[in-house]
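In response to reviewer comment 3 from the previous cycle, which asked for concrete evidence that the modeling workflow produces usable outputs, we include below a single protein chain processed end to end. The sequence was submitted unchanged, and the resulting structure tokens are shown without manual editing.
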Amino acid sequence: MNTLFNSALKQSSAIRRDLDAFAENPAASSPALQGQLTNINLMSFPSRTRLGKELHLSEDTGKLTEIVGQISASLTSLSRTIDDYSETAKKELIPTKQEKAYERLKTFRTDILDYRQTFARLKKDREDS
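The workflow returned the following structure tokens.
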């Protein structure tokens, strides 16, 4: 149960960082994605000139899509982790640990609802502007 809790906590923190980055700058890349394009393109495009052009094009056209996709996937993953944690909490035999797990579940569910609302609002703001 601790593993699921730690996983949910890390996922929640990553989503919070991504939402903050998305709110501050709509073209900002997700902190989880930083360096990912460089690693992929270094393997695919060994030429430095070509690599620079490829990164520039990708950054101009795909940052918004990347961070929206990353946040969507992270929210789905966190939701599944919360469901798994809930199932594990139901099976807990020690009442105090089960109660603690239920309290943590309340917090996670409140957080994910807040993240989804914030994400929807930010996406709507981007579409309106």
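The CA atoms of residues 11 and 119 lie 15 Å apart. We consider this sufficient to address the reviewer's concern, and the full set will be provided in the supplementary archive.
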